[in-house]
Specification:
2 domains, three-stranded antiparallel sheet, four-stranded mixed sheet, WLM_dom, Ubiquitin-like (UB roll), Uu.00g073480.m01.CDS01
């Protein structure tokens, strides 16, 4: 028997994963590693190894370099592949370049128009045309693509978002929606949902607009906070202290500049969002804990020591803070009325 015939008859380990809502199965040799699996994915789906991320049930997020971990560790587990093929990246780059060229052409045409006196700041108009979302694109395979496009247009025109993007000089090639089915995982440990993704520091931002059952749309402010989170990834990749400082700064700026809804924040130093849903990417509710970014990174609601809080602890902490502020407000009111203070 030749070596090729021996390899053909050797038992194989089937590894099944989902990518963009489609299921794929690769038959690997029993002694293959995750690096071998990553190389095979690159050969079949043309997704570069350094762009691949594997969300594996009970194991969390795995990404390059994958190392010598045996591929048998992934057998019979639910796996979601996150990654963009080389063709898709090239297409998005071409779309971004085309959009930028159109903007340059329009800017040149505007400069050649006769001067018209207006109270509109021309420098601000130029910045808003530069620091914005170049292309908006709903998913045509999902229900109500026109409504999704209107939702994306609302985000682009949001006064707070426009102010923050201009202040930080953010320019995003493509703002699109994500398919909830492709980014939702349920197991006996709970349900994991990804609300947003930022690819290549602003080349593409994906947002979860629709509900899991495609029967409606998620809360606008929750989606807007997710967008603030993803915009912070234009500067910082990992969820470290620098990332969170920038993320909360953007949230405060967006809330303050949102004149349409009377923008406000709790105070000058802290932004508080009362919704139970918090924007996150590559992570979620796993094993009863809120994990932001996967890989052990702490997220919103994490303690100063970096540990993750459970959903119940986060809600309880928020309620405790509200009660504390109410007691302080009542105490100050009583002091003004009677000139005394409780001890």
């Amino acid at each position: 028997m030749t070596e090729q015939e021996a390899l053909a008859t050797e038992p194989r380990v089937p590894i099944t994963f989902t990518h963009h809502g489609k299921q794929h199965t690769l038959d690997m040799l029993p002694d293959a590693t995750l690096t071998d699996l990553s190389n095979e994915i690159q050969n079949v789906l043309y997704i570069p190894t350094d762009k691949q991320k594997l969300m594996v049930s009970k194991l969390g997020m795995l990404k390059a370099p994958f190392g010598d971990r045996p591929v048998t560790d992934l057998e019979s587990k639910k796996i979601t592949l996150l990654g963009t093929s080389s063709d898709e990246i090239a297409s998005l780059n071409a779309a971004s370049q085309s959009a930028a060229a159109r903007e340059v052409h329009l800017a040149s045409a505007r400069r050649n128009l006769p001067k018209v006196y207006s109270r509109r700041d021309p420098m601000r108009a130029q910045e808003e045309s530069q620091y914005t979302f170049m292309t908006l694109r709903p998913l045509p395979n999902l229900p109500n693509p026109q409504r999704s496009l209107a939702f994306l247009e609302r985000l682009k025109a949001d006064p707070g978002i426009r102010t923050a993007m201009r202040a930080h000089k953010f320019s995003v090639g493509l703002l699109t929606e994500m398919d909830p089915l492709s980014y939702t995982e349920s197991s006996h440990e709970g349900t994991t949902r990804i609300l947003g993704l930022n690819r290549n520091k602003g080349e593409v931002i994906e947002l979860r607009l629709q509900t899991d059952a495609y029967d409606g749309y998620r809360d606008y402010k929750t989606i807007r906070n997710t967008l603030c989170h993803e915009l912070a990834h234009n500067v910082h990749g990992p969820h470290d202290r620098q990332f969170w400082d920038l993320c909360h700064q953007i949230e405060r700026e967006v809330s303050k500049a949102d004149w349409k809804s009377g923008g406000h924040s709790v105070d000058e130093s802290e932004f508080y969002e009362s919704s139970e849903e918090v924007a996150y990417d590559h992570g979620g509710w796993t094993g009863g804990e809120f994990v932001l970014g996967g890989g052990g990174s702490s997220g919103a609601g994490a303690s100063a020591g970096g540990g993750a809080l459970s959903r119940r602890e986060i809600i309880a902490k928020a309620a405790e803070e509200r009660m504390k502020k109410q007691r302080q407000a009542k105490g100050e009111s009583g002091e003004e009325a009677s000139g005394s203070r409780d001890t």
